[in-house]
Design goal:
- By secondary structure, the protein is mainly α.
- Helix content is 90%, strand content 0%.
- The longest helix is centred in the middle third of the chain and has 74 residues.
- It is rod-shaped.
- The protein starts with a helix and ends with a helix.
């Protein structure tokens, strides 16, 4: 009847720790445990509702049987006053039947009432346990998410400045140096390919400019 406590004990017992030690995602596992507990609570709530309904039904039957016994007793008294002892005897016989039914039903009602009380108490205990576990779950969930975030950040940061990253930078630096060397080499090659005439042309152009400047200075322009 109270198999619902099995799941509750699973959550608060060593099996929870075993689950968290394995490869399962703790956040997902904690959410699943809470769903299991919620399902158990709904199951017990349904059982409590049925038991309370049964208790009220038996109470009504006890009241009806007692009322009928009282009614037959009053009818028997009226029959005696009317001088009809046979009718009074039959009324008392029926009263006895209803009184016995009432006594039997009273026992069933008492048991049903006690069972309902026990179920309500167990349900209250489960809800209290659930609320405590919900608070614990929220705390564990936050800690798990924080730990996962820190792990991810640490793994990312550990890659910065690693041998692989430094090696990549070194390779890129070598390429830049190679590009610069190639550029300087191309400029040297361009200079070496100039003809002797080109060089004299530059020299002549320089003399002509200087001669023109000198004439201007002397007023001979």
């Amino acid at each position: 009847m109270f198999q619902f406590f099995k799941r509750v004990k699973t959550v608060v017992g060593s099996e929870l720790n075993a689950m968290l030690d394995k490869a399962e995602d703790p956040v997902k596992m904690l959410d699943q445990f809470m769903r299991d507990m919620e399902a158990d609570i709904r199951e017990v709530e349904s059982a409590v509702a049925k038991q309370i309904a049964n208790e009220k039904l038996l109470q009504k039957k006890v009241e009806d049987a007692n009322n009928m016994a009282s009614k037959r007793e009053e009818q028997a008294m009226k029959a005696i006053e009317a001088g009809n002892e046979d009718l009074a005897r039959r009324a008392l016989e029926d009263k006895k039947i209803h009184a016995e039914q009432a006594a039997s039903l009273q026992e069933s009602y008492t048991r049903a009432k006690n069972d309902a009380s026990v179920l309500r108490q167990k349900l209250d205990e489960m809800k209290t346990e659930y609320n405590q576990m919900k608070l614990k779950k929220d705390s564990l969930k936050a800690r798990a998410e924080s730990a996962q975030t820190r792990t991810k950040m640490n793994r990312t940061m550990s890659g910065i400045g690693s041998d692989e990253s430094r090696g990549g930078f070194d390779r890129m630096e070598e390429k830049v140096l190679q590009f610069e060397a190639e550029a300087e080499t191309s400029e040297d090659m361009r200079s070496s390919n100039r003809s002797l005439d080109d060089e004299f042309k530059e020299l002549d152009n320089g003399v002509d400019d200087e001669l023109a400047a000198l004439k201007k200075k002397m007023g001979k322009a």
